[in-house]
Structures are given as C-alpha cells and as structure tokens.
Specification:
By secondary structure, the chain is α+β, with helices and mostly antiparallel strands. The chain has helices spanning about 5-10, 25-35, 55-70, 85-90, 115-130, 145-150; strands at about 45-50, 90-100, 135, 160-165. Bound molecules: flavin mononucleotide (FMN).
C-alpha cells in the first residue's frame, strides 16, 4: 500500500470482528512502531500486548470509571452514549507506555513532552502498519493514564500514551473531513 494511501485510509475503528490477530501480526506492528523517531534516540516506549480476560477487564473497568467521572462532572452529553463494546470485540490491544524521563535534552529543563511525542509517533506508526495489513485500530485514551499503567503492572514512573485495540474492522467509518491547514510564510500570520 502506498504510504499516503495508508495515511488517508486509517480510520478510528470502534467495531471489530472476532477474527483472531496472530502474535506475528502484532509483532510486525510493534516492529513498525519502534522505527519512530525519539529525542536522543532514547526510545522511551514499551508495549503490553493484551489478550487475556483479566487484563482486558481491567482496561474496560478503568475506561468506564473515567466515563462515569466525566458524566458525574457534568461533561458533554454524548459521553453517556459512548460505548466501550469495542473492547469486548477486539481480539487484542497494544498498550503503548513511555518513560517521561527519556525526553532527550528536554529532561534537562524538566520537560517530558519529547517522550510523549516519541510515543505518539510510535502509536501512529503502529496504526499505519495495522492499516497496511487491513486491520482496524483505535487510539484509546479514555482513562486515567497513571492508574492504567499501574493496573497493567508497569514499573513506577511510566505513563500510557494510548491503548490500541486491534482487529478486523466490523465497520467502515466515513473519514471525518479535515480543516484546511493553517500555513504561513516565514512568520505566523503571514
Ligand atoms: C491522542 C488521541 C486520543 C484519542 N482518544 C480517543 C478515545 O479515547 N476514544 C475514541 O473513541 N477515540 C479517540 N481518539 C480518536 C479520535 O477521536 C479520532 O482520531 C478523530 O475523531 C479523527 O478520526 P479518524 O481517526 O478516523 O481520522 C483519539 C485520538 C488521538 C490522536
């Protein structure tokens, strides 16, 4: 698949077939992920491949807790209708964790954004590779990331960039239109 085609074809998929996704497939997606750039090449990411019922239940539980907190806090009305059923459907998820201390020279200024940026690039690589294999994916962040890291048994100090449910898509979502990019010349606003 052409790169631009994969970039444009990737959709956030929230309905999956039960068709299995093999370890080889998942490993190939993680292989794509780790070719992402990272500050000082510190590669701040790590991955938890989630297939088991207990880990999946913990993920769903933390997502539902966050949904309830948003509802209780008077958040937007659509949240009440947001369903995590796709978490029951997807045969596998990949949690992408990162070490905020591995932020390149940013760490010198107490900035961790470089680590999250690198993890985000890894997530996008993984999702594009999934698209290339005909798999659907979703970048899920609807949870407390530090609680999620803990629930997944991660060492202290790691953060979660996202959990990516993967599977054969059971829907073909329409591409949400993109805004025209703000592009300036030499200086912002020009
Ligand atoms: C950092 C990030 C977090 C996201 N978190 C969620 C999420 O928790 N739940 C969800 O359904 N979609 C989530 N999305 C997906 C966006 O809703 C989606 O990318 C956007 O609507 C555009 O649709 P597309 O991905 O099909 O182009 C997230 C996307 C990004 C980049």
């Amino acid at each position: 698949m052409e790169l631009l085609q994969a970039i444009q074809l990737r959709r956030s998929v929230r309905a999956f077939e039960s068709t299995p996704v093999s370890d080889e497939q998942v490993n190939s997606l993680i292989e794509a992920a780790v070719w992402a750039p990272s500050p000082l090449h510190q590669q701040p990411w790590s991955f938890v491949v989630i297939r088991g019922a207990e880990a999946k239940a913990k993920v769903k539980q933390l997502c539902q807790a966050t949904k309830q907190a948003v509802i209780d806090g008077g958040g937007p009305g659509w949240v009440g209708k947001y369903s995590f059923d796709f978490l029951d459907q997807a045969p596998v998820y990949v949690a992408v964790l990162f070490d905020p201390k591995k932020a390149g020279l940013g760490s010198f200024f107490n900035q961790s954004r470089g680590a999250m940026a690198a993890a985000a690039a890894a997530v996008q690589n993984l999702m594009l590779a999934a698209t290339g294999q005909g798999l659907g994916s979703l970048w899920l962040t609807f949870f407390d990331p530090l609680k999620m890291a803990q629930a997944l048994g991660s060492p202290e100090g790691l953060d979660v960039a996202g959990i990516i449910p993967l599977g054969v898509p059971a829907e073909n979502p329409k591409a949400p239109p993109r805004k025209a990019p703000k592009v300036f010349s030499d200086f912002y606003g020009q």
